[in-house]
Amino acid sequence: MNWDDTAAPAEAPDGALTADRLVGAAADGEDQAVEAALRPKSLDEFVGQVRVREQLDLVLKAALARGATADHVLLSGAPGLGKTTLSMIIAAEMNAPIRITSGPAIQHAGDLAAILSSLQEGEVLFLDEIHRMSRPAEEMLYMAMEDFRVDVIVGKGPGATAIPLELPPFTLVGATTRAGLLPPPLRDRFGFTAHMEFYEPVELERVVHRSAQLLDVTIEGDGAAEIAGRSRGTPRIANRLLRRVRDYAQVKADGVITRDVAAAALRVYEVDTRGLDRLDRAVLKALLTLFSGGPVGLSTLAVAVGEERETVEEVAEPFLVREGLLARTPRGRVATPAAWTHLGLVPPQQPPGAGGQQGLFGT
Ligand SMILES: Nc1ncnc2c1ncn2[C@@H]1O[C@H](COP(=O)(O)OP(=O)(O)OP(=O)(O)O)[C@@H](O)[C@H]1O
User: Fold this and answer.
1) Which of 186, 189, 203, 336 could be joined to 145 by an S-S link, Cβ 3.0–4.6 Å?
2) Which residues bind DNA (predicted)?
């Protein structure tokens, strides 16, 4: 059966499943407060991303040997994979100061001119969300990156004049979650482009061990593995889960994070063994139980879980697709066999009793 969107009733979504989401990759207030203490300070300390690290190491060492400013660097990748951290490491490795700003903060070319003209020689300018800069600022950046010069326009209309302004050499580190949205002329002006991948569980284990040490928490190898496996390939989520598990260990156990303590804590926070939370499971469960695994239209699915269409599409689905649990097809959303297995449910064509309930949260 193909469940389509045409009959989707207009129901008010309540958003309850997205409140206080522990597995979101964007930084929340608490993350911002504690992340500074957990950031690796050098390339050697930076876990994983081996290829990026090796290449960047060469770029920076060569620039240092020449006594030159490093090439402009573009870092792309999902939130929480370490782009800000890497930009700070670039500055530290070059013994240079760093200035941090973001695309949305630069709405006028004048905003950018003010920042660029106050840079010191060799300074690293970190421009987060570079794809969200305004067009005039972006055009000013082209010349600044290439010639270390900007034209400041004074006046308006036919009487407007361009006053050239020399800039000290600097290194721009641009970060984006959407490399495809960058116009080619901007992309081409970066000397080094790196795409950050999601981390392997063993790499996240190392992140968890390192953070536990910095937070002065005792953690066993199995405990770190349990957290790493539920962290969706993302260091920020690994660090966040570690903090929640630490709370649990302090209140309910003797402060030591073992595998059982980690599993019990994450059961309380409803993050299952694959890193799915309530929203993810609600979407999957609706797809499997109400629509026999699909295909079903996005709007219908969203109404079934009581969430906005955008929430299902942008918050829940990307990870479900990445995990191979859900597929987006021209006919609608379809569950994969792995989705049935994960929720311990039996696909309709199989005889009842062939599946068996799985322990979603571990022991
Ligand atoms: N390779 C790594 N090794 C150890 N810790 C890491 C690594 N990458 C990221 N982290 C940790 O994860 C957290 C998030 O990293 P960071 O802020 O650099 O991510 P980001 O990619 O800039 O995210 P956003 O796109 O949301 O700005 C930081 O606390 C940092 O310490």
Assistant:
1) 189
2) 309, 328, 333
Q: How many CB atoms lie within 10 A of CB 275?
A: 22
Rounded distance from Cα 16 to ligand 1 centre (Å): 28
With beta carbons less than 8 A apart as the criterion, state whether 234 and 47 touch: no
Per-residue model confidence (pLDDT) at position 151 = 87
Q: Under CATH, to which class is 3-195 assigned?
A: alpha beta
Residue at token pair 């950018």: 112
Same fold across 3-195 and 201-268? no
**Can you tell me the distance from the alpha carbon of 43 to that of 20, in angstroms, rounded to the nearest whole number?**
33
What is the structure's pLDDT at 160?
A: 84
- Does 132 belong to an annotated binding site? no
Residues 6+ apart with CB under 8 A from 266: 226, 227, 230, 241, 244, 245, 272, 361, 362
Residue 235 Cα, ligand 1 centroid: separation in angstroms? 6
Q: Looking at residue 257, what is its pLDDT?
A: 97
69 is catalytic: no
Checking phi first, is residue 282 left (phi over 0); if not, alpha (psi -120 to 50) or beta? alpha
pLDDT for position 279: 94
Kindly report the pTM of this predicted structure. 0.89
For residue 44, the tally of other CB atoms under 10 A from its CB is: 10
Instruction: For residue 149, give both structure tokens.
Output: 């010069």
> Considering only the top CATH level, what class is 278-348?
mainly alpha
Q: Is the predicted ipTM greater than 0.90, yes or no?
A: yes
d(CA 95, CA 77): 25
Q: Which of 69, 128, 176, 272 is catalytic?
A: 128
Q: Where are the domains of the chain?
A: 3-195, 201-268, 278-348
Q: Is the CB of 80 under 6 A from ligand 1?
A: yes
The pLDDT score that the predictor gives to residue 300 is: 96
- Which positions ≥6 away from 15 have C-beta within 8 Å? 307, 308, 311
Q: Does domain 201-268 have CATH number 1.10.8.60?
A: yes
